[in-house]
Amino acid sequence: MIQTTPIEIVEVAPRDGFQSINEPIATGIKIQIIEALIAAGLTRIEFGSFVSPRAIPQMVDMIEIAQHFRTDTRARLAALVPNVRGAELALKNGVQEIVYVFSASEAHNLSNVGAPISQSIQGLADVCQAISGADIALRVDLATAFDCPFDGTVPMDAVLHALEHIAQLAPTSEIALCDTTGRANPFEVAERFQKVMTMEALSNNTWAFHGHDTYGMGIANAMAANRAGVAVIDTSAGGLGGCPFAPGATGNTATEDLVFAARGSNAGCAVDLAALLEVADRIAELPGTSMGGHLRTVPRGKLPLL
Amino acid sequence: MIQTTPIEIVEVAPRDGFQSINEPIATGIKIQIIEALIAAGLTRIEFGSFVSPRAIPQMVDMIEIAQHFRTDTRARLAALVPNVRGAELALKNGVQEIVYVFSASEAHNLSNVGAPISQSIQGLADVCQAISGADIALRVDLATAFDCPFDGTVPMDAVLHALEHIAQLAPTSEIALCDTTGRANPFEVAERFQKVMTMEALSNNTWAFHGHDTYGMGIANAMAANRAGVAVIDTSAGGLGGCPFAPGATGNTATEDLVFAARGSNAGCAVDLAALLEVADRIAELPGTSMGGHLRTVPRGKLPLL
């Protein structure tokens, strides 16, 4: 058996997925789905964003959900925070991890968070100060780390520029290189991770990959990242969601596809595929969903290990 | 840039794809599509099977197609042959390469070619004798080299048993390990190729991978094979086709998805993606087709390099 890096999935359906659904989902349903994801064996879950409900109405019940899972030790629940106000809400409500997002490409950062990159870097500094000394993990998502919906291929220099600032401000954070459009290919994913993972300035950071399956590269890119030594991979049950501000970037890589890809290998994680598919089916039944992924399209009887 | 093995695509839509279409395709249309695939830059094409038209009616015009491409030097055209009669027809009609298929699993061999593996191995011996001394290449496709639609995971010993015979009978042939069901995962693909590619008895054989995307593993598995050093990868324009005798095994990996995956890398091949997508669209317009792949589902304006 090939030695490799065990995969640790970050399930993003409740954040990246639910925000793509216009129909309001009842708080109780959200909690039930997160509970079911945890029961299926997922140990890291992005459960939402502490943003203004005016920006993303689906996130109106963040505090209630955070409080429900406040003392939970089965899984590490993370929330996106766009600013200090979000970080303070996360701290106050006992969230275990916050995720701060900005882009390597100026055009996408302007579109996604409405600010130039320099302002987002200042925002990261402010968030780091706000959580300084607190018992909360920090992850930084670097969007458009490969390709930008507006500018195409993002130069590696732009990625390195962003990473320099992250290394200075958050030297022990987990950093996710995000393929926001899904247009990265496995060679680029391997190459960029190999480059950054050997840089001295980033030697105390850990790494994650967030990809999309829009162009069919989702699993191949996740495997390329894993092969380069990346343990943490973001996926979404049922392939739900995408970036609403990146045109054409529908389709997160499906969690069940990744679990299937790694099954039986040293990289495989202890997720119950049958239970996971049940949650994905349940998510698919919510009004207004747009699902992705492959495994749910195959008759259940054809799936091994079920 | 990461050093890797340049990919050589074998386009199988005219064989593995067209045989999945019940509606007869006019010979002139088939030739036009093969011409367009060659014009798009594909240098190896499986154009059909010298089988009885009673078994696969779509293959009724094999001789006419073979004769059309008889003197063609732009691409290497290959035909499947189930037996000596097929090999003789291929030789007589100037085909450059024949492909002989049998399975590593007994149940699939019985279902696919109606004979036990031992009889198929004798058939390979007969075919080798029939082409002995002739200027024709031989490839052996080992079906169910990972997973069988009837028996599940195929033991590596069964694969090695088949390979021993291939090594003895056809010591310089190209051997394709075929993921007939699409249920292999990238770790298994890498592991099996790494094993067989270092075996002394097989050191004069060359290697190919034939996969399906049914479970979403198509590109990831192709990348895993390529990473293990496999140059030759089978794909089908538009993801057309599958094995009609392997229940649930629809969906060859799409050629355009693989070209997209390797673009800009050292493994990339000189295929014109825009021209290829036009051929795939044309195939999709044929009556009775069932297409697959990802790139054709994305609005064309969102595709880079077009």
Automatic annotation (TrEMBL), chains A, B:
GO biological process, one term: L-leucine catabolic process
EC number of the protein: 4.1.3.4
PROSITE patterns assigned: PYR_CT
Domain called Pyruvate carboxyltransferase: residue spans: 7-277
Enzyme class: lyase
Keywords: Lyase, Metal-binding
InterPro entries associated with the record: Aldolase_TIM (IPR013785), HMGL (IPR043594), PYR_CT (IPR000891)
Keyword check for Metal-binding: yes
Family the entry assigns: Belongs to the HMG-CoA lyase family.
Name under which the protein is recorded: Hydroxymethylglutaryl-CoA lyase YngG
Gene: yngG
